[in-house]
Amino acid sequence: MRYAVLGTGIVGRTIAGKLAALGHEVVVGTRDPQATLARTEPDAYGNPPIAEWLAQHTRVRLLCFADAAAFGAAVVNTTAGAVSLQALEAAGADNLAGKVLLDIANPLDFSQGMPPSLNPVGTDSLGEQIQRAFPATKVVKTLNTMNAAVMVDPSRVAGEHNVFVCGDDTDAKKLVTELLAEFGWPRQSVIDLGDITGARGTEMLLPVWLRLWGVLGHTDFNFQIQGARPGA
Questions:
Q1: Which of 103, 108, 104, 117 is nearest to 44 (CA)?
Q2: What are the DSSP E strand ranges found in the chain?
């Protein structure tokens, strides 16, 4: 399958690398490919320049947002939540129409420093904002409650633990669940939270996740929902 992964940060690279390793055709989208490739310094999180990463992942190509979205039969949003809507606007509504969009982003607000807060929060979510802005696109919120490495390798966390999906389109959620199975998630670990308003809950797990990171000192952890029914 052809996937467009929007965003060149660690989440985008991790997802794109896993998809390519599974045999999918993958492109990564960025606002300005030439400017992105010209960067020679690590990013704010210490990740090496994308050019170095691409040299090690020769099956993955870097394109502008619009060309990437046009290429992908499905699209994965891994951009920073604060700019996700602008990035998807650059990708183009026509290029996204009718496609499944996996939204992994979180609306982190760093305006007051660390730790970040959420905006929107409570009565709205980034997932809902994306669905409203692109009504012809099938938005599914998933994988936004864990570290990128755990997203594509759930065995990093011992024992049973869960991944959530939510979205308005049942068939889109089924496709996403199939992809999660490819990533190694047992089907019984996937919990369907219903329509896209479920994104409010999963996005609001981020403050808890951030606090756990600080307490535990690592990110190889996840949430387990005891009493969940298989296929719930």
A1: 108
A2: 2-6, 25-30, 60-64, 74-77, 100-103, 108-109, 117-118, 138-142, 163-167, 190-192
- CA distances to 88, 92, 159, 176, 215 from 72, in Å: 13, 12, 34, 15, 39
**Pairing of β 163-167 and β 190-192:** parallel
pLDDT tens for residues 109-153? 988 888 888 999 999 999 999 999 999 999 999 999 999 999 999
Tens of pLDDT along 13-62? 999 999 999 999 999 999 999 999 999 998 878 889 999 999 999 999 99
User: What backbone phi and psi angles, to 5 degrees, belong to 190?
Assistant: -85, 125
CA distance 232 to 229: 5
* Phi–psi pair at 106, nearest 5 degrees: -125, 140
**pTM to 2 decimal places:** 0.95
- Going across the sheet that includes 2-6, the strands are 60-64, 25-30, 2-6, 74-77, 100-103, 138-142, 163-167, 190-192
- Please choose, from the candidates 8, 107, 117, 113, the residue with its C-alpha nearest in 3D space to the C-alpha of residue 53: 8
